[in-house]
Amino acid sequence: MAPGVVTPTTSGPEHKQDTDLTASAVDAKLTTKNGHVQNGHVDPKPAAAAQLAELDASKLTYTLTPTPRPVPDEATANSGLETVCTDHMITATWSARTGWAAPELKPYGPLTLMPTASVLHYATECFEGLKAYRGHDGKLRLFRPDCNAARMLMSTVRISLPAFAPQELEKLLLALMAVDGARWLPRSRPGTFLYLRPTVIGTSPQLGVQAPHEAMLYIVCSFMPRMDSPVGGMKLHTSPEDMVRAWVGGFGYAKVGANYGPSLLATQEARKRGFNQILWLYGPEGYCTEAGASNYFVVWETKEGRRQLVTAPLDDRLILDGVTRRSILQLAKERLAGELEVVERRYTIDEVIEAEREGRLVESFAAGTAYFVCPVSLVHHRGKDLVIPTGENDCGAYTAKLKGFMYDIMYGNEQHEWGVVVNEKE
Ligand SMILES: *Cc1c(COP(=O)(O)O)cnc(C)c1O
């Protein structure tokens, strides 16, 4: 071999250590034998891990409130500055020594944390958001809660909080709704919803910058305003040139609190200027990624005249893999196959502007649990307004169709495996 040529090390302990540290290797740690998730951090000594208790929904204890609060109507509940939660919450604590304690269902109220708690300093927090829907058939449903539970596990592990079996989280979500659903989302209010917010936080009272050795999972359930049909459609302002929401190699794909706090400055400024959300662009090319905390879609015609539903891809891990996004793409493929091609690819704001200029831009919408499927009527980019057709009732025809498919599954007009019925106590 010529002197000076360095042979790359493809085997040996040093190389192995490096590949073990990639994000995909971290993901691989999520799955172990029997679909069981190893408790807590990955332990090289399985014998030690076996002694740690798993998260187990069957151990849930119930302490019901002696003083149930009056249930406000939707308008009152959403008018205050404090999110109104239902009577109960579920908590489960974890420690590196013992694993998961039995989860508890108990009256809604404050948590106790030391000022040194990991979450308060190092953003060891992740969350999920899903709704419970009161159906027109009287039944209470969650929409694909298995997807939220799986995503929560992915986010949890990304910030070195303890793993759990996602089916157990799903059971806990159903358990909370079984207790609070009947009163807080009564059968007399079909077509309404509550919002479930599972959260995991690092609670270790230790300032050392390291993975927490204590954590807590909790679930609360709240009211949330409807945001899916703003008068005149949703108006977006593109992100400032000197800000990105997420980056390649970052954690934009995980629902970790650290993604959201820093985005609020731009959102607040956009609101002051009369816009609803930021359309987050990425890179010098200006790739369209997400609209606020929702996935972003456009319907356009290609120069060749093909109608496409276009959204950003998942493979570069910039965007959140939304349950709404995934469902819409699947429904569009199944039910609008003759009308729309479904395309997941990188696309730039300039392509959208060009489509508009050439009369090829058909519709645009944002989609996520909070905003449901919300028509976008305007994008403001570098001093110019891009006006997007919204048609009748401020909602384009494809947007309305996709929204209708989703609505019918969520509210039981269509029986579908995505609608999981809550077994209510009463
Ligand atoms: C939660 C979220 C979404 C939407 O995900 P859903 O599962 O559809 O609710 C999209 N983008 C971001 C950044 C989010 O946080």
Task: Describe the protein's architecture and organization.
GO terms for molecular function: branched-chain-amino-acid transaminase activity. InterPro entries: Aminotrans_IV (IPR001544), Aminotransferase-like (IPR036038), B_amino_transII (IPR005786), BCAT-like_C (IPR043132), BCAT-like_N (IPR043131), BCAT_family (IPR033939). It comes from Coniochaeta ligniaria NRRL 30616. Helix 6 crosses helix 7 and helix 9 packs across helix 11. This protein has two domains: 171 residues, D-amino Acid Aminotransferase, Chain A, domain 1, CATH 3.30.470.10; 162 residues, D-amino Acid Aminotransferase, subunit A, domain 2 (D-amino Acid Aminotransferase, Chain A, domain 2, Alpha-Beta Barrel), CATH 3.20.10. The N terminus is likely disordered. Strand 11 and strand 12 form a beta hairpin. It is globular. It has eleven helices and 19 strands. The longest helix is centred in the middle third of the chain and has 19 residues. 25% of the residues lie in helices and 25% in strands. It is of the alpha+beta class. Pyridoxal-5'-phosphate binds next to strand 13 and helix 9.
